[in-house]
Structure formats: structure tokens, C-alpha cells
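BUG: 3D viewer hangs when loading the predicted structure for this chain

Environment: internal workstation, default settings.
Expected: structure renders.
Actual: progress bar stalls at 90%.

Input used:
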Amino acid sequence: FFPSENPHCCSNSLGMSQLLTMDKVHLQSQGYTAAVTHHGAHLISWRAPDGQELLFLSKNAIFAPPKAIRGGTPVCFPQFGMLGPLPTQHGFARNKGFVLEHKTESSCTMSLAYDGQGGAGTFPHPFTLHVTTSLEGATLTQELKVSNTGSNAVPFTAALHTYYRVGDISQTRVEGLKGVSYRDNLQQLKEEQEVQDTIRVEDEIDRIYVNAPSSIKLVDEAGKRQLSIEKSGFPDAVLWNPWIAKAKGMADFGDDEYKEMVCIEPAVAISGPVKLDPGATWTAKQSTTVSQL
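C-alpha cells produced before the viewer hung:
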């Protein structure tokens, strides 16, 4: 089913050939399908029974490890953004090869064992990260499980940087965040409070909602569907769309693709890092259910 039936991915033959050679796992449940690459334990496709793709994957995405993939759900770990000691955004898990630990028809678990020796010396904390992706009918669940395998506490931030595909960003709304404080990345993390019942994306937006509610709704009017997002273990939520100027500045993102996507990302971010004790395990997940309008 993937990628030959995906009309949105790989505008060039090089991108398609790169994707075809990547190791990946296919999942299915009640007509819904998903695909996860071993590179980054990266969810790159989630499709409804009618063939509609529910995740955004840029037509200019580069499928060449260790390069991160633009779209789907990159796993940001052990750092979200620049909130941590690492010199590059979003940590390094999304750039690493994972090992397939377990697979059924509808779920898979992949793992990354880190010995504390990478990260240019900036992250000397051993850990094992398990990423589980599962389908149950119209619900997609992604879970992160982190185990501290070292002798000192592991501090980390994290996110599931989920790119949702929408029919038209001008006919898209986000609900459930009214009254929540957020930090605006476009204003040096200035603190604001959300006053809108319904958020419409009409320009570049890059916000971290602090201690966000567990339920957020994405309504895609043009696509005639809604996505109900439930998160646990992630205190924060990020809302992002690059809009016109930033889209043009990204080589692996089409100039007009900002019209087709929005990121809603459960995160450990402004609320502060997790500090995981030796031998302890931390778990967080998101479940997204699609329904028709």
C-alpha cells in the first residue's frame, strides 16, 4: 500500500528510490494502515480505509539516513527543540537506526540503546528508548518508553512531532486550548494566554502550550474529518505551521505545502525536563482517533 499509492510523497524519482530502500514495517487494522521506518522509529504513513492519507509527508522529504524525515511523526528525544544541552534541534533519536523488537499485524515496537558515548560529549547519559506504534480501527497510538540504564539521573525533554495532513489550512481549526498559557517561539518565548475557543492558522505559528489539556481536537473542514488527540505523560503541546517565508527556506519542504499541514505535538518542553532516576522507566503516549464530519 505504501508508497506507490501515496499521491503526496516523493515528487522526484530519487526520493522514491530512497524510500523504497528503507527498512520499514507495515501495520493494518480494520482497513486502516500505517508504515514505520526503522530509521528513527518514524511513522511515515497513516491511511484510512478510503485511501486518504492522514499524515503529512513532504513531497521534498529526504530519505537518506542519518537525515531526519520531513513529515509523519519524528521522535524528538532526548531533547525537544533547543531545550537541553545538545547543539542541534530535537535530539538524535530521529537520526538513528532502531531495532525491531516485536511486531503483530497491527502493532510494532522498536528500540534504541544508547551507551552515553554519542552526542559529541553533550549527552553522557545511557538509556534505552522503546517506541511502540499500534492501530486499533480508527485509532492510532504511539508510545514512548524510556529506561535509564546508567548510574546517574537522565534529564530529557521530548516530543512526538506529529504532522497532520489537512485539506486546506484556511479551513482548519484547533479546539481545546482556550485559557491555556503558552510560550511564543516567534517572540523569544514570550508568555501569552490562549483566548480563542477555536484557533485558526492564518500566519506562521510556533507555540508551546504549557500544561495543556489531555484532549485536543483538530477539525479539517475541507477534508470533512476531525482528529481527536488524547495525550498522557506529555504535559505540554506544540502548535506549528511554518507559513510562507519559512516554507520557502526549507529545502525538504515544498513552498506551498504549508497549506496542507499543521503540527500538533505532545511534548515535554517548557514544563521542564524529566529527571529519570537510575533503573527507572518513564512512559508517555498519544492516541489519535479520526472520524467523519
